[in-house]
Design a protein that fits this description.
The complex is a heterodimer of chains A (456) and B (420). In chain A, strands 1-2 form a two-stranded antiparallel sheet. Among the domains of chain A are: 51 residues; 87 residues, no CATH class. Chain A contains 22 helices and 4 strands. With 456 residues, chain A is mainly alpha-helical. Helix content of chain A is 55%, strand content 3%. Chain B is of the alpha/beta class and 420 residues long. Helices cover 37% and strands 12% of the residues of chain B. Chain B has 12 helices and 12 strands. In chain B, strands 1, 5, 6, 7, 8, 9, 10, 11 and 12 form a 9-stranded mixed β-sheet that branches. In chain B, strand 3 and strand 4 form a beta hairpin. The longest helix of chain B is centred in the middle third of the chain and has 36 residues. The chains are: A mainly alpha (456), B alpha/beta (420). Chains A and B meet through helix 10, helix 17, helix 18, helix 21 and helix 22 of A and helix 4, strand 7, helix 7 and helix 8 of B.
Chain lengths: 456, 420
C-alpha cells in the first residue's frame, strides 16, 4: 500500500474532516494535507457565511418551492446540502444546533418555519451563544414546538421556560422549580403571527410584574432572562461539554471541559474560538478521540454517499435515517439525540447495512459509481483481489483493516459458484463484464458492513 | 443461580473484554442454538409487556375523581363532566375515550394503581424517565435499567438475545444491561439483511458472518458493533419466521382501505401476541407510545391517545384469549409523571407528579389499588404520591417473573396483591 494514506498527517487530516465535516474523498483529504493542520482548521472555520453561489440558488429554490407539509423535501434539501457543501464545518455546526435547540415536524407542521429555523442555525453556526439563544427564543418554530404562543399572564405555560434552562443553557440541577415558573412568566406574550410566520410580541398577554429568577429580582422579560442565564457558572461548561462530545469523544470529565469553558466565558460566549481550540487541541488528535465515536446516522449516510459517489436518489434516504434513529427535523423529543452508544442497536445496524446495500447496488449503465469502479479496474493499479481490497480500504475507509477482515473481503471476491475458490480476474477489453463488476459492488457493500465503517 | 450459569456469565464477560463475540451464535443454523422456550431457566414461564407513555400522561383526566369539587375548580376548561365519565367506582371513573379499558375493568382483567410516584419528584421529562427506567432516584450516573438488571441477574441475555424485545429505533434505558442490549426492532419487515442481488446473498452473508465472528482491530467501539451486529443477524431469521403471517396481514391491511389499517400501538401488540405464540424464549416485550406532553390544547390530543391505548389493550387481550395465552401475559403501563392539578391558560397542563398506572392480564386481580391522592393537600400545586412505583416493580419481579426484587431494586419494597 502507498505510504500516503497511512501517514500521520493524512490520518489526522482525515479525522479532522470526518469530525468537523462529513468526511471527504481521497483527493479532498490530500488537498487539506497540503495546507498543514493549522491552515486546514482555519480554512474550515473561516468560511464565507453566505455560502457558495450554487447553495444560494438551491436555497432560493427551496424557499420558493417547498410544500408546507413536504417534510421529505425539506430533509432531502438539507442532505443534499451536506453532501455537496463547500462549508462542511458550517453544516456540521448547523447539525449541532439542530440537535440542541430541537423543534420537530411531529408538532410544528409547517416546513417553512423549520426551514427558517435551520437557516438561523446556519447563519449563526459559529456565532455568539447569547445572540443565538435570544434568536431561538423568538423563533416561530421553537415558539410553536414548546407552546410559547399560548404562554399568557395568569397561568403561565412552563414548557419553554423549563427546557430553556434544562436542555438549552444550564442543565438539570442548576435551577429550582420556582425558577421554572418565574422564567415562564418572563416569556409570556412572546408569540408569532400564524399568517406571516414572524415573531410577535403581544403586550396584553405579557406579565410585567416583578419576578425573582435565579436569585435576581426585577421586572424581567425574555431578554433579561437570557442575559441572566449567560452569567450562570454552569452555562459555558454545559455547552462546551456538548460540543466536546460532538467533536472529540463521548466521555469528557469536568477537567477536560474547563479550558474550553474558560475560553467561552472570556470571549463573551462566542462559539468560534471554542470550536477552533477544540479542533487544534492535542486531545482531538489523541488515541482517546481518533476512531472513538460511532458515526451518527447523518454522518454515516453523508459519508457513504460522498465516498461512493452513489446516485441513489437522496429522497429515499430520510426513511432509512428514521430507522437508524436520527430523522432530521423530527427528533423524538426536545432533548434531541443522545448519541454515543445509543446509536447502535439491532434495529439501527440493520438500517445501516441495508442503506449501504442501496448505495452499493449495481446501477444503470452510466451510474457514476459503476463508472468509477470500471475506471479503477481498468486503471492498471489493481491486478488481483488483494489489490482491489487495498484500493478500497484506502479510498473508502481511510484506515487499515485487520488481516482477518482483509482476508474475508479477498475471499469474497475470489469465491466462485458453489463455494469454490476461483481467482478474481480483471479481463482486458472495452467493458468490464457484469460478473466482475457485481463482485466489486458486493465487496463495497460488505466493506460498509464492517464494524470499522460504523466508527469515525 | 447454578454454578454453571455463573461460570457462563464469567466466561461471557471474559469474552467481551477480549473483544470476542460468541462465534457459536453466528452458526448458520442459528435456530438450533436457542431451543426457544425450552432453554428458559427462569422461575416461571410468565411474560411481561411494558408499555411506556412518553410525555407525562395527565392522570387526573385519565382516572377522574369526578365527585371531588376541587377537581372541577382547578379545571374549569379541561375538566371532564361527571356525566361523561365512565364510572368504575363511586369516586373515580375513566376518561370517556376509554371504553375498551372500562370493559376490561368490568371483566376483572385490569388493575388500576392510584397515586403512584416516588419521593422528591423530578419534573424534568428526562430525569423522571430515567428514575422510572432505572428504579434509582439517587445516582447521578445512569447505569443499567431495572429490567436490564433482571436480565443480568438472571443470566438470560447471554443465552438468548431474544429474552427482551423492544419495538422502536431506540432502546429504552429500562432494558440497558452491562452486557449488551436486547433486540430492538421498529419495523419487522425491515429486520433482516439485504444483499445487492439474490446471487450474492449467500457469499455476502458468509462474508458478514466471518467479519463479525473474528477479530477486527481492537477497539471497544468496533467490539460493540460486532456483538450487536451478531445478535441482529442471528435473531432476524427467527423473528422473520415467527412473524411471517402477521407481516403479510399487515401489508394486506396497508394496501386495503383506510379503516383496516391499525395504529402503530395496536399493530405492535399484534406482533407481540404472534411472538409470544412462537415461544422464542422472550421474557419481556417493550412497547412505547408518545405525545402525552399536553401543555396546550390538551382535550382533543389526550382523547385521541387514550382511545388508541384503550382500543389497543382491548384488542391485545382478546388476541391473547383467542390463543389461550391470557394467563401467561401481564402488561403494565407507565408514564414519567402526571400533570399539574390546576390547568394553565393554554387549555393544557404543566408537568406534575403522582398519577395512576394500569396492570392488565388474565392473572391480574382487577380493581382499584392505592389511594387517590388528595386534591387539597398538594406540594407546590402537585399531587402527593402514596404508592411507590417500585412497589409495582417488586410485584412484577417477585409475583410474576419469580425472582427476588431486593437486589434488582436496591431496596425492599412491598408487592401489591394484584396478581393471583
Amino acid at each position: 500500500m502507498s505510504g500516503g494514506v497511512f501517514s500521520e498527517e493524512y490520518q489526522r487530516t482525515a479525522h479532522l474532516l470526518r469530525r468537523a465535516g462529513f468526511g471527504a474523498d481521497h483527493d479532498t483529504i490530500q488537498s487539506y494535507v497540503q495546507m498543514g493542520l493549522q491552515n486546514a482548521v482555519d480554512s474550515l472555520i473561516n468560511y464565507n457565511p453566505d455560502g457558495n453561489p450554487l447553495e444560494i440558488v438551491e436555497d432560493r429554490l427551496e424557499n420558493d418551492q417547498l410544500g408546507r407539509f413536504d417534510i421529505n423535501g425539506l430533509q432531502t434539501w438539507w442532505l443534499n446540502r451536506m453532501v455537496h457543501t463547500t462549508n462542511p464545518l458550517q453544516e456540521k455546526m448547523t447539525l449541532f444546533w439542530h440537535g440542541h435547540f430541537v423543534s420537530a415536524y411531529s408538532k410544528v407542521t409547517d416546513t417553512a418555519l423549520l426551514y427558517r429555523q435551520n437557516q438561523l442555525f446556519r447563519r449563526m453556526a459559529l456565532g455568539n451563544f447569547r445572540d443565538l439563544t435570544l434568536a431561538v427564543s423568538k423563533d416561530p418554530a421553537m415558539i410553536w414546538y414548546l407552546d410559547n404562543q399560548t404562554n399568557r399572564k395568569g397561568h403561565a405555560n412552563e414548557n419553554y421556560g423549563r427546557e430553556l434552562m434544562e436542555l438549552f443553557t444550564l442543565g438539570i440541577g442548576h435551577y429550582t422549580e420556582e425558577d421554572v415558573r418565574q422564567g415562564a412568566r418572563a416569556f409570556t406574550g412572546w408569540s408569532f403571527n400564524r399568517l406571516t410566520g414572524e415573531y410577535q410580541f403581544i403586550p396584553n398577554q405579557h406579565d410585567d410584574g416583578v419576578k425573582t429568577y435565579l436569585g435576581q429580582t426585577g421586572n424581567f422579560n425574555g431578554n433579561d432572562v437570557v442575559d441572566i442565564l449567560m452569567k450562570q457558572p454552569s452555562c459555558a461548561p454545559f455547552i462546551c461539554s456538548k460540543l466536546y462530545k460532538f467533536f472529540i469523544h463521548d466521555n469528557p470529565t469536568s477537567d477536560d471541559i474547563k479550558p474550553f469553558a474558560d475560553t467561552m466565558v472570556k470571549s463573551n460566549m462566542d462559539i468560534k474560538p471554542v470550536v477552533r481550540q477544540m479542533l487544534l487541541s492535542d486531545v482531538f488528535y489523541s488515541p482517546k478521540a481518533m476512531w472513538q465515536k460511532f458515526k451518527s446516522p447523518t454522518e454515516f449516510v453523508v459519508d457513504a454517499i460522498r465516498i461512493t459517489g452513489s446516485q441513489f436518489p437522496l429522497r429515499y434516504t430520510p426513511q432509512y435515517m428514521q430507522q437508524m434513529g436520527q430523522e432530521l427535523f423530527n427528533a423524538l423529543s426536545v432533548k434531541g439525540w443522545d448519541g454515543g452508544k445509543t446509536w447502535i442497536n439491532t434495529n439501527t445496524l440493520f438500517s445501516r447495512f441495508n442503506y449501504a446495500m442501496t448505495l452499493a447496488r449495481l446501477g444503470e449503465e452510466n451510474d457514476p459509481l459503476l463508472v468509477k469502479i470500471e475506471d479503477v479496474l481498468k486503471s492498471g493499479t489493481v491486478q488481483n483481489a488483494s489489490d482491489v481490497v487495498d484500493y478500497y480500504t484506502e479510498h473508502l475507509l481511510h484506515r487499515t483493516l485487520s488481516d482477518q477482515s482483509k482476508q474475508v473481503l479477498v475471499a469474497y471476491l475470489n469465491a466462485g459458484k458453489n463455494g469454490n475458490q476461483e481467482p478474481f480476474e480483471i479481463p482486458s477489453g472495452e467493458r468490464i463484464p457484469y460478473p466482475t463488476l457485481i463482485k466489486v459492488h458486493g465487496m463495497l457493500h460488505v466493506m460498509m458492513l464492517t464494524p470499522e465503517f460504523q466508527i469515525c | 443461580m447454578s454454578t454453571s450459569r455463573r461460570e457462563f456469565i464469567q466466561n461471557g464477560l471474559t469474552f467481551v473484554s477480549l473483544g470476542m463475540t460468541i462465534p457459536a451464535a453466528l452458526a448458520r443454523a442459528s435456530a438450533e442454538v436457542y431451543p426457544g422456550g425450552a432453554s428458559s431457566s427462569s422461575a416461571t414461564g410468565n411474560i411481561l409487556v411494558v408499555l411506556q407513555m412518553f410525555g407525562g400522561n395527565d392522570g387526573l383526566n385519565t382516572v377522574i375523581p369526578y365527585t371531588d369539587p376541587l377537581y372541577y375548580q382547578n379545571r374549569p376548561t379541561i375538566g371532564i363532566a361527571k356525566s361523561d365519565v365512565l364510572q368504575i367506582s363511586d369516586k373515580v371513573g375513566f376518561h370517556p375515550a376509554m371504553t375498551g379499558m372500562k370493559s376490561l375493568y368490568e371483566k376483572g382483567h385490569l388493575a388500576v394503581v392510584q397515586g403512584v410516584g416516588y419521593p422528591n419528584p423530578n419534573l424534568s421529562h428526562f430525569r423522571s424517565t430515567e428514575i422510572w427506567e432505572t428504579a434509582d432516584s439517587v445516582s447521578e450516573i445512569v447505569g443499567e435499567g431495572w429490567l436490564g438488571r433482571y436480565f443480568d441477574d438472571d443470566g438470560h441475555l447471554r443465552e438468548n438475545p431474544l429474552v427482551g424485545i423492544n419495538f422502536g429505533a431506540k432502546v429504552p434505558h429500562t432494558l440497558y444491561t452491562d452486557y449488551g442490549s436486547v433486540v430492538s426492532m421498529e419495523n419487522p419487515t425491515a429486520y433482516q439483511m439485504q444483499a445487492i442481488n439474490p446471487q450474492q446473498r449467500t457469499p455476502e452473508l458468509d462474508a458478514f458472518t466471518a467479519l463479525y465472528s473474528q477479530g477486527t482491530l481492537a477497539n471497544d467501539y468496533s467490539d460493540l458493533v460486532r456483538k450487536i451486529g451478531s445478535d441482529a443477524y442471528t435473531t432476524s431469521n427467527r423473528i422473520q419466521a415467527a412473524l411471517k403471517n402477521e407481516i403479510q396481514n399487515q401489508s394486506a391491511r396497508k394496501m386495503g382501505n383506510g379503516n383496516a389499517k391499525l395504529s402503530q400501538l395496536t399493530q405492535n401488540l399484534k406482533y407481540v401476541a404472534e411472538l409470544i405464540s412462537a415461544d422464542l424464549g422472550t421474557k419481556v416485550f417493550y412497547i412505547s407510545t408518545g405525545g402525552f406532553d399536553t401543555h396546550a390544547g390538551q382535550p382533543p390530543t389526550q382523547a385521541r391517545l387514550l382511545a388508541d391505548l384503550s382500543e389497543s389493550l382491548e384488542q391485545f387481550y382478546s388476541e391473547l384469549e383467542r390463543r389461550g395465552l391470557q394467563n401467561k401475559v401481564t402488561l403494565v403501563t407507565f408514564s414519567e409523571f402526571g400533570r399539574r392539578v390546576q390547568e394553565n391558560a393554554s387549555s393544557g397542563t404543566d408537568h406534575g407528579t403522582a398519577s395512576s398506572l394500569f396492570v392488565m392480564g388474565g392473572a391480574v386481580k382487577g380493581g382499584l389499588y392505592g389511594q387517590y391522592p388528595s386534591l387539597e393537600d398538594l406540594d407546590m400545586g402537585n399531587l402527593k404520591f402514596n404508592t411507590d412505583f417500585r412497589d409495582v416493580y417488586s410485584t412484577l419481579l417477585e409475583k410474576w417473573l419469580g425472582v427476588p426484587s431486593q437486589k434488582i431494586l436496591e431496596g425492599t419494597f412491598s408487592p401489591l396483591p394484584l396478581l393471583s
